[in-house]
Amino acid sequence: TFLPVNLFEQFQEVANTYFLFLLILQLIPQISSLSWFTTIVPLVLVLSITAVKDATDDYVSVCHTHTHTLPTSCKMITDFTHFM
Fold it and tell me: Which residues cross the membrane (predicted)?
């Protein structure tokens, strides 16, 4: 579910939508001045870097949330004197 949601959020940005529109126009040979490759590489690169950044942010956020939401009965025992 990460990939569809991430792509949806990224294409909410005007710049990403603009480059997608340019890519679609580059696929039409009658109006294309460049190859589609020159448009798809920057778009895929930007989308990939942003997706990796968002994935690491989500992972760090989930790990941080789980360490702070443990039940109070799961506290670490630091005083072992009463066990002896």
Answer: 20-47
Q: Which letter, b or e, does each residue of 13-48 get, where b requires 16 or more Cβ atoms within 10 Å of its Cβ?
A: eeebeebbebbeebeeeeeeeeebeebbeebeeebe
Interacting residues of 51 by C-beta distance below 8 A, sequence separation 6+: 3, 6, 7, 10
Gyration radius of the chain over CA positions = 23
Full-model pTM: 0.65
What token pair was written down for 80?
């072992």
Single-letter residue type at 62: V
Give the model confidence (pLDDT) of 1-37 as tens digits: 788 999 999 999 999 999 899 889 888 889 888 887 8
